[in-house]
Design brief:
This protein is mostly beta strands. It has helices at about 235-245, 255-260; strands at about 1-10, 15-20, 30, 40-45, 55-60, 75, 85, 95-100, 105, 120-130, 130-140, 145-150, 155, 165-170, 210-215, 220-225, 225-230, 270-275, 280-290. The protein has a single domain (about 70-290), classed as Exo-inulinase, domain 1 (Jelly Rolls), CATH 2.60.120.
């Protein structure tokens, strides 16, 4: 592998203060410090039919600068600022992502996965390994999005080449709900691999709750308080799921390699939100580290 320092970004987040409560005691201030983003590029040469690709490694946010509640959950989006968030493969937030009424909103471009210049997927700039992620989401009529996890940043490639997708969808009005196999492209499904059952999403315009638990390779998806599916990473079951999907070794060798070895050598990666060209909202995004 060839590793080189690619850039030193001047991008820094604004100094601000957040407060976390401590079980009835006095609130403790948390200083959210600005940081400069450095980028290192690691070139992975072509081998065994997997094309050459470049992994980006950027400066991470320190969790100590994030509010944490009495149950151990870090609030990684507080409804007020994009502290810790940036575009996938970028040093800044794309302009189509805004804060509206305490929620992250993507202002739809109508371009689908084409992702116009002021759009694109976003991520929280800290890698997680074992965790419980909780969030609320809603979509406009006919909208599509997704939540990613254990993602890497692969130069010139989409985020989903290296990350599973917890599907976010208007099941009643988006055509993807009727594609795939047995509903495996409907909301909270493991996209294109495992359907969410029971399928209990609410109609467009209404808030849903979602949760993803990753612990030592076991992954569970929850929707509106109900467990809807489970799978196990780095197993023959996981490999078989990939081989039966659009990410198979034959169809997409680079995606298969990255997903089959999800999270890289350290089995860790980023949390991300998808720009699929449609209006979507997220709020109350929290994560508990279980390492």
């Amino acid at each position: 592998m060839d590793t080189k320092k690619a850039s030193l970004g001047a991008s820094a987040f604004i100094l601000m203060f957040a407060v976390t409560s401590c079980g009835g005691g006095a609130a403790k201030p948390v200083v959210q410090k600005p940081y400069v983003i450095e980028t290192t590029e690691t070139v992975v040469p072509e081998q065994n039919g997997v094309p050459e690709h470049t992994i980006l490694t950027k400066t991470q946010v320190e969790l100590s600068s994030i509010p944490q509640d009495k149950d151990g959950f870090y609030t990684i989006f507080d409804g007020k600022s994009f502290y810790g968030w940036r575009g996938y493969g970028k040093d800044e937030m794309p302009g189509r992502w805004v804060i509206e009424d305490g929620a992250i909103k993507f202002n739809g471009s109508g371009a689908g996965e084409a992702q116009v210049n002021d759009g694109g997927d976003i991520l929280f700039a800290h890698k997680f390994k074992n965790f419980e992620l909780t969030f609320d989401w809603k979509v406009a009529k006919g909208s599509n999005s997704g939540v990613f996890f254990l993602a890497q940043e692969v130069k010139g490639q989409p985020i989903y080449i290296s990350s599973p997708e917890y599907q976010i969808l208007d099941n009643e009005n988006h055509p993807d709900a009727k594609l795939g196999i047995d509903g495996n492209r409907q909301s909270s499904s493991l996209y294109d691999m495992i359907p969410a059952k029971p399928q209990n999403s609410k109609p467009f315009g209404e808030w849903n709750t979602g949760s993803i638990i990753v612990y030592k390779g076991s992954v569970s998806h929850f929707q509106n308080g109900k467990p809807v599916l489970e799978y196990h990473l780095w197993t023959s079951q996981w490999t078989d799921l990939l081989q039966s999907s659009k990410f198979s070794q034959e169809k997409w060798p680079l995606a298969f390699e990255l997903l089959n070895n999800l999270g890289g050598a350290d089995h860790e990666g980023y949390i991300g939100l998808q720009d699929h060209g449609d209006d979507v909202w997220y709020k109350n995004i929290k994560i508990k580290v279980m390492d």
